[in-house]
């Protein structure tokens, strides 16, 4: 009986040490996923701009602009390369769900916050960022929306 109590105490100590470390590990993975998603999306925007004469994708076409073939004006799209739609695609699929913050899991891209919006695209500036509030920060205190 005494051995069983000692084993239970040891397991409790191990759990008290391991669980916080595991939860920090998953948060670090989510932050890394956010950074990687933003790098890929920003590179896709840069390629789009380079191929479309310096023109940024319009907000109403942002997903199609990055995931389909497009014409030079960026207003016609096709799943297949055609004689009119031959630029792109720049992403194989739309950006994944937002991996951090209160809007975690949201997938939409918009110019401002709204239902299911995970990513904010500023058409005038050509930037994309996480749809997170200023008080949502990583382990180092950096705001997710400033990544």
From TrEMBL:
SUPFAM superfamilies: Pili subunits. It comes from marine sediment metagenome. This is Type II secretion system protein GspG C-terminal domain-containing protein.
């Amino acid at each position: 009986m005494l051995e069983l109590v000692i084993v239970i105490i040891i397991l409790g100590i191990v759990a008290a040490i391991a669980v916080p470390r595991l939860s920090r590990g998953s948060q670090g993975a989510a932050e890394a996923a956010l950074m990687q998603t933003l790098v890929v999306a920003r590179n896709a925007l840069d390629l789009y701009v380079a191929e479309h004469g310096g023109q940024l994708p319009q907000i109403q076409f942002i997903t199609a602009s990055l995931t389909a073939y497009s014409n030079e004006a960026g207003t016609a799209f096709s799943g297949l390369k055609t004689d009119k739609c031959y630029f792109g695609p720049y992403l194989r699929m739309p950006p994944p769900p937002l991996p951090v913050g209160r809007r975690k899991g949201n997938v939409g891209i918009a110019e401002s916050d709204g239902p299911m919006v995970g990513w904010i695209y500023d058409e005038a500036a050509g930037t994309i960022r996480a749809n997170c509030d200023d008080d949502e920060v990583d382990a180092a205190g950096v705001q997710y929306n400033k990544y």
